[in-house]
Amino acid sequence: MLEKIKETAAYIKARVGEIPETAIILGTGLGALVDHITDKQFIPYTEIPNFPISTVEGHSGNLIFGKLGEKPVVAMQGRFHYYEGYDMKQVTFPVRVMKAMGVKTLFVSNAAGGMNKEFVVGDIMIITDHINLFPENPLRGKNYNELGPRFPAMTEAYSHRLVNLATEIASRKGIRVMKGVYVGTPGPTFETPAEYEYFRIIGGDAVGMSTVPEVIVANHGGMEVFGVSVITDLGGKEVTDVPTHEEVQKAAEAAQPKMMEIMRELIAEC
Ligand code: HPA
Known about the structure:
The chain is of the alpha/beta class. It has a single domain (2-269), classed as 3-Layer(aba) Sandwich (Rossmann fold). The protein has helices at residues 2-15, 88-101, 160-173, 193-201, 212-220, 245-269; strands at residues 22-26, 37-44, 62-68, 71-77, 105-114, 124-132, 177-184, 206-208, 224-234. α1 (2-15) packs across α2 (88-101), α2 packs across α5 and α3 crosses α6. The radius of gyration is 18 Å and the shape is globular.
């Protein structure tokens, strides 16, 4: 694994002049941030050695190097989901590579179903913590001390500094933001009403099918992490709405301008 990470990092470094210290995983709700990146250089995943091969047609994905405002950034346009069939090492490989290239801070976004009864569709939730309900931890197996410790702490998986700064930015801009705990599940099923209820009872505010693996690996590598969810549907025992992929996409798109505004400012200021 170490050799593959090094090989991939060296390949990308050879193609790109300056390696940014800031990386963004453009999940649902943040795709349009690409339009704000200037001096863009695209590297399709298909050209990157050792990158997972996309299983979804038309979803090949790109690494995008450029500038967001003054700040050099690298963005992942398209991520690898566990439900697509990738294993946890494949899902998190790009984060390993980013770390090896010198990235220090990781920003992630996702769409999530809300269990917190104060949430409404279209809300933005700053992730303060997570609960890993994936069947496997991405760090399972041999540990490479070069990558991080065998038993990494997850006490501050989401940087308090960045949570506070994002909260301040949202309040300055008059954008309603919620804060909460993200429950990461393998998917691809949405939850049964009883499952939403269960996730709420164990301390979750929103549930989704991504983010947790990448955040674990970023923390293992000592990166500072910020995550945000857009609440695209609500779940619970008394909720009878049936969530669909289309509804999730639509709600995420509607919330995109708010999400982007916070993220742009946060990345500029942090
Ligand atoms: N559950 C799981 N993942 C999701 C949901 C949900 O309700 N909404 C968007 N992603």
